[in-house]
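Here is the promised in-class demo. Please do not try to memorize the tokens; focus on the logic of going from shape to residues.
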């Protein structure tokens, strides 16, 4: 399979789910965007259930930022192509959205499970109500701001600004799905304009809603629940690959990627066992095994990011794996749970100023995800003639530079102003 056929198959998969350039499995989930990450290596500040301590896993914010930029590259170039602008969409670097979302789902599952099990171990219980409250204060304000923009304000402004763009759904008619935190239902049926990426927020919020009481009441058997989720999800994906499940049902099956979050949960239990704070019956191989596994994982990741289509042409086995939902899910779970375990257990952190800058930018990954489609839309519509006149190389560089800079700037401003109002409430100590 050459690059062109790989692109065609990818577009066919998106089409089967009712997804176009604004909607792909490339979006950043929300818990993996948290500004702090728990670890037992730093003292916790909480003194009662629900007041989880704040600490940090070195290296994760850098990975967040890199994954976020892969999403921005993928969506940004796809939007250029959709608008009929010169593009290089056939390059592998612009097709890593699905890779990024798998990482963020795995990281989300890891962080949420670590937080919940840490609270249970320290206090003997979990405050599910306060867990929901923290998630809502962190995620929902910006989520509903984008819903307001995408369903009411922008559709109303387009005619006023003289922009000809036919929104393929009744904005007011789909609001109920967004209010119910089920934006993925809209994605299955429509091209959902600039707010397409919200589907992943809905997937994660429903996972959080289910996982918190499970971790509280199942306790030491939680690893069995995660394993069951993975097995059931893989079975459903096999049915989709075999065309036993089709249409909107297939779209729902493929879009609810709970298996990646469950795999991240298993990774969290493994890390806590290594730190001597939990009792999950994991397996630790010989000393030489882990460096070898780490080398293989980082090599495969680098090749997938930079040379996906080339590798697919050379290795039929790789092509077979990545052309199926089941194979892709298995590969991504293996790669990203290993990556998260490696980074969190080794406290990987770059010492250069570039790494420190990326680590700081990683704190704004949630905003980057939420705003990047809106910025790309504005750039391609507002400066369409400019991108057409520029030589391809200069156009690509200036466009993605402007997209990345503007999105980061908006994300920073948003977090320090609008989101800050709710983050302050999120960080208040729990009341007795």
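The designed amino acids, position by position:
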């Amino acid at each position: 399979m050459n690059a062109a056929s790989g692109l065609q198959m990818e577009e066919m998969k998106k089409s089967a789910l009712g997804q176009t350039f604004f909607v792909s499995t490339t979006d950043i989930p929300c818990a993996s965007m948290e500004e702090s990450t728990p670890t037992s290596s730093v003292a916790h500040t909480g003194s009662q259930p629900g007041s989880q301590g704040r600490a940090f896993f070195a290296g994760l914010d850098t990975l967040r930022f890199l994954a976020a930029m892969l999403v921005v590259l993928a969506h940004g170039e796809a939007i250029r192509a959709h608008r009929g602008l010169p593009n290089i969409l056939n390059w592998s670097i612009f097709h890593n959205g699905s890779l990024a979302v798998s990482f963020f789902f795995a990281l989300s599952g890891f962080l949420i499970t670590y937080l919940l099990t840490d609270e249970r171990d320290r206090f003997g219980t979990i405050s599910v109500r306060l867990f929901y409250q923290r998630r809502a204060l962190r995620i929902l304000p910006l989520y509903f701001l984008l819903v307001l923009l995408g369903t009411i304000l922008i559709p109303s402004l387009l005619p006023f600004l003289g922009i000809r763009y036919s929104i393929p759904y009744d904005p007011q008619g789909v609001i109920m799905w967004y209010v119910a935190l089920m934006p993925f239902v809209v994605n299955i049926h429509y091209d959902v304009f600039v707010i397409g990426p919200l589907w992943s927020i809905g997937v994660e919020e429903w996972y959080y809603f289910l996982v918190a009481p499970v971790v509280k009441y199942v306790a030491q058997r939680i690893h069995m629940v995660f394993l069951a989720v993975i097995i059931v999800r893989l079975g459903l994906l096999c049915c989709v690959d075999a065309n036993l499940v089709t249409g909107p049902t297939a779209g729902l099956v493929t879009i609810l990627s709970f298996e990646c979050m469950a795999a991240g949960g298993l990774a969290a239990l493994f890390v806590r066992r290594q730190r001597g704070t939990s009792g999950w019956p994991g397996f630790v191989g010989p000393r030489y095994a882990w460096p070898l596994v780490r080398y293989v994982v980082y090599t495969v990741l680098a090749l997938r990011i930079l040379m996906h289509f080339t590798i697919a042409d050379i290795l039929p086995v790789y092509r077979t794996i990545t052309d199926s939902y089941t194979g892709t899910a298995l590969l991504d779970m293996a790669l990203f749970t290993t990556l998260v375990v490696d980074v969190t257990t080794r406290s990987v952190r770059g010492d250069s100023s570039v790494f420190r800058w990326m680590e700081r930018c990683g704190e704004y990954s949630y905003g980057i995800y939420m705003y990047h489609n809106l910025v790309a839309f504005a750039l391609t519509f507002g400066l369409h003639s400019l991108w057409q006149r520029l030589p391809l190389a200069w156009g690509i560089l200036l466009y993605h530079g402007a997209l990345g800079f503007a999105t980061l700037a908006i994300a920073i401003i948003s977090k320090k102003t609008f989101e800050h109002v709710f983050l302050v409430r999120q960080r208040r100590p729990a009341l007795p």
